[in-house]
Specification:
The chain has 758 residues and is α+β, with helices and mostly antiparallel strands. It folds into 6 domains: 35 residues, no CATH class; 110 residues, Butyryl-Coa Dehydrogenase, subunit A, domain 1; 131 residues, Butyryl-CoA Dehydrogenase, subunit A, domain 2 (Beta Barrel); 130 residues, Butyryl-CoA Dehydrogenase, subunit A, domain 3, CATH 1.20.140; 174 residues, no CATH class; 68 residues, no CATH class. Helices cover 59% and strands 9% of the residues. The protein is flat, with a radius of gyration of 29 Å. The model has no long low-confidence stretch (mean pLDDT 91). It is an enzyme of class 1 (oxidoreductase).
Length: 758
């Protein structure tokens, strides 16, 4: 007891008396911290500082305020946005024949190009004073997704001018003269934009761009001006083959000191007409057979005035930060919209197909193996829709959540791949035989494009999500890093002392919270709701505490080496991502009015999210390089083991069966794959067959009952069986006509396209 009291007194003195604390704790820790800091490149520093911390900050800090999540509001469409979707978008869908676009034209038909330009499809994000629509991120996402339900090529063509590119950069950073000159042309379609960032030597590492702009003086339009001599070689540039204006990212250098500053100014963005002397547009690429325009551009000794820099000369060298902050459109809106469209289309068609396709005398949707894959499709679609809404909500709140959009890009495009794989497995031959009736083939073929662009998924997961999130979202680390860089050492030490005390308390709280939650099953954690979903909030808080705790110790022990431990940081990023996705799911359930028929999907999704988050935490502990520390962390985070086991078979069956019937729950997960008059594609066929078959379900039951009783033969062709059922009065004339029509629609739906022999 004496020793314990003595130890307690020593701790009180060490931490309670400032002079002693500064001498024996703060000063040596500060010295150690500065040595521990990872070296940051300029591009890493800019990426770290760019964007805003949003909901992910709550999740990273161990004690999320769930009321904050619910306060963000429900995404909605304005009357103008809804009218555009109901009219212009639906009209565009009737003009799309994706098989013809991809396999015959290898381009959109001229009338569709003209319609997109005339009706403002390329002006969704441009302010109204320049002729644009100024639509919300949610509306932009919804428009792209509905187009993608019928054609990936058409959707990509629309999404690129409304994504990372000249219009967005001009709207945010352009000079007034640049805006007035270019934005009306972009809004009307007179100017078609592309943005050239990727080259042979710079892909995901965009900071390694070798393309250069050298400051020099040269004659331009009859007089000598200060400008840039540009050389570039870019590839994979969407819309480049048809672009009239080129956004270009390059390294700007001033070797002769003409601007009076440093030589290496950094990444800069400029806007250049493609008919400008020296600008060359190369040949087309072939992105997995899709028909959207994609190709190369290059230039040699192309001179432009400094005024062509986006934002003017004062934005020289600020291009990387501009790009990182504006990546939200591509990473948070466009690519997630494509992914969500795949989910809606797969859910609509695969539930219908599973009902109308029969094997062994049964609808294939009755087989548990099919139900397992079908449940994953439905659950992933619910998750995709939830993440789409929450992410666009953040963007519409005018924050630039760079970590959130990285999460959305990586996980939503990967979920899209999973959805399409499962849909292909269930629909089998229907999915692999290309033709006008095939609604899965082109999304399946094009899915790797989404996974590759806007930062390759592998690097997004292993470098970006946790690498940015750990520093930006942590309540103390970024401030401590800034303190370490201060020139006034005494002021820095004073500030660090205050931060250190808070940091120690923060770490102790998360360690205690992790242990207490694990031992009590999170029962004492707060939840903003009652009912069945309240435990999910409590479990998410527990895992958030565990993430915060392990992150602190990882950064303390590994320091700069942590960013090179990519597999470890990827797992920690997975924990954050799963918590974000789970948050989106719970918010969607609330936004939908806590619909009871949504609960099977919510149960399945949340069981999956919690299982994956816990598994990622466990994987990080198992591979943590300092084993004694790993044992301590495991004892605090999983003292009695990991009991997050994922969905049960009962959950799986309930979810699959609930979606094998028309109803509001199915409508909420398929509305991005709309029906319209004159739709002659396979989606309409399989949906019509499904609805007709479902209407005849009681008639089928009568026939099955008669077969079991021996009144009707068990094996007989359908038409003959229906006629016999009518003849022996098992069904009446009206039932006979309805079931015959339903069977004709069924056969039409399961048939695939045929072509003449080559």
């Amino acid at each position: 007891m004496t020793l314990l009291i003595l130890a307690l007194l020593i701790i009180i003195v060490l931490f309670g008396v400032k002079n002693i604390r500064m001498q024996f704790i703060t000063r040596p820790v500060f010295s150690f911290f500065k040595k521990l800091l990872p070296p940051l490149s300029d591009t890493e520093k800019e990426a770290m500082e760019a964007g805003d911390v949003w909901w992910e900050g709550e999740l990273f800090r161990g004690k999320p305020n769930w009321e904050t999540l619910h306060s963000y509001g429900k995404p909605t469409l304005t009357s103008e946005e809804q009218d555009f979707i109901d009219n212009q978008v639906m009209t565009a869908l009737t003009m799309i024949d994706d098989f013809d676009i991809v396999h015959n034209r290898k381009d959109l038909p001229p009338e569709l190009w003209e319609y997109f330009k005339k009706e403002g499809f390329f002006a969704l994000i441009i302010p109204k004073q320049y002729g644009g629509k100024a639509f919300s991120a949610y509306a932009n996402s919804t428009i792209v997704a509905k187009l993608a339900s019928r054609s990936v090529s058409a959707a990509v063509t629309v999404m690129v001018p409304n994504s990372l590119g000249p219009a967005e950069l001009l709207a945010h950073y352009g000079t007034q003269e640049q805006r007035e000159n270019w934005l009306p042309k972009l809004a009307s379609g007179e100017a078609v934009p592309c943005f050239a960032l990727t080259g042979p030597e710079a892909g995901s590492d965009a900071g390694a761009i070798p393309d250069e702009g050298i400051v020099c003086r040269q004659e331009f339009e009859g007089e000598e001006v200060l400008g840039l001599k540009l050389n570039w070689d870019k590839r994979y540039i969407t819309l480049a083959p048809v672009a009239t204006v080129l956004g270009l990212a390059f390294q700007m250098r001033d070797p002769d000191g003409l601007l009076g500053g440093k030589e290496a100014l950094g990444i800069t963005c400029a806007l250049i007409p493609t008919d400008h002397p020296g600008v060359k547009v190369g040949q087309r690429h072939n992105p997995l057979g899709m028909a959207f325009m994609n190709g190369t551009t290059y230039g040699e000794d192309v001179f432009i005035p400094l005024d062509w820099i986006i934002g003017g000369p004062q934005y020289a060298g600020r291009g990387w930060r501009m790009l990182v902050e504006c990546l939200s459109a591509g990473r948070g809106i466009s690519l997630p919209a494509l992914a969500t469209a795949s989910g809606h289309t797969a859910t609509k068609t695969t539930t219908a197909y599973s009902y109308v396709r029969h094997q062994f005398g049964l609808s294939i949707g009755q087989f548990e193996g099919v139900q397992e894959a079908l449940a994953r499709i439905v659950a992933n679609t619910y998750q995709l829709e939830a993440a789409r809404r929450l992410t666009t909500t953040g963007i519409d709140l005018k924050v630039k959540p760079s970590v959130v959009t990285a999460i959305a890009k990586y996980h939503m495009t990967e979920m899209s791949r999973d959805v399409l794989n499962d849909a292909m497995d269930i629909q089998s031959g229907k999915g692999i035989q290309l033709g006008p009736k095939n609604y899965l083939g082109h999304p399946y073929m094009g899915n790797p494009i989404s996974i590759t662009v806007e930062g390759a998924n592998i690097l997004t997961r292993s470098l970006m999500i946790f690498g940015q999130g750990a520093t930006r979202c942590h309540p103390y680390v970024l401030a401590e890093m800034e303190t370490a860089a201060m020139e006034d050492s005494s002021a820095a030490l004073e500030r660090f002392d205050s931060l250190l005390l808070g940091h120690i308390g923060y770490g102790a709280r998360n360690a205690f919270s992790s242990l207490f939650c694990a031992l009590t099953g999170s029962r004492f954690n707060q939840s903003p709701v009652s009912g069945e979903t309240q435990q999910y909030y409590k479990d998410m808080t527990r895992l958030s505490s565990g993430l915060a705790f392990i992150t602190d110790l990882s950064m303390l022990i590994m320091g700069g080496d942590l960013k090179r431990k990519e597999m470890l940081s990827a797992r920690l990023g997975d924990v954050l991502s799963e918590l974000y996705l789970g948050s989106a799911t719970l918010k969607l359930f609330e936004d939908n009015g806590r619909q009871q028929d949504d609960l099977p999907a919510v149960r399945f999704v949340m069981a999956t999210r919690l299982q994956k988050a816990a598994k990622a935490l466990e994987g990080a502990l198992r591979n943590f390089p300092n084993r004694p520390v790993a044992w301590v962390m495991r004892a605090l985070i999983f003292p009695i083991g990991n009991h997050f086991n994922g969905p049960t078979d009962k959950m799986t069956t309930a979810l699959a069966k609930g979606m094998l019937q028309p109803g509001p729950a199915r409508d909420r997960l398929t509305f991005l794959c709309p029906e319209f008059e004159g739709d002659k594609g396979g989606i309409a066929e399989v949906e019509d067959a499904f609805l007709a078959q479902f209407e005849c379900r009681n008639t089928y039951k009568k026939i099955k009952k008669a077969q079991r009783a021996g009144t009707l033969p068990k094996k007989m062709a359908n038409m003959a069986l229906f006629e016999m059922a009518l003849e022996v009065s098992i069904i009446n004339k009206g039932e006979f006509e309805a079931i015959v029509n339903a069977d004709k629609l069924r056969l039409t739906a399961i048939h695939v396209d045929e072509f003449e022999k080559l």
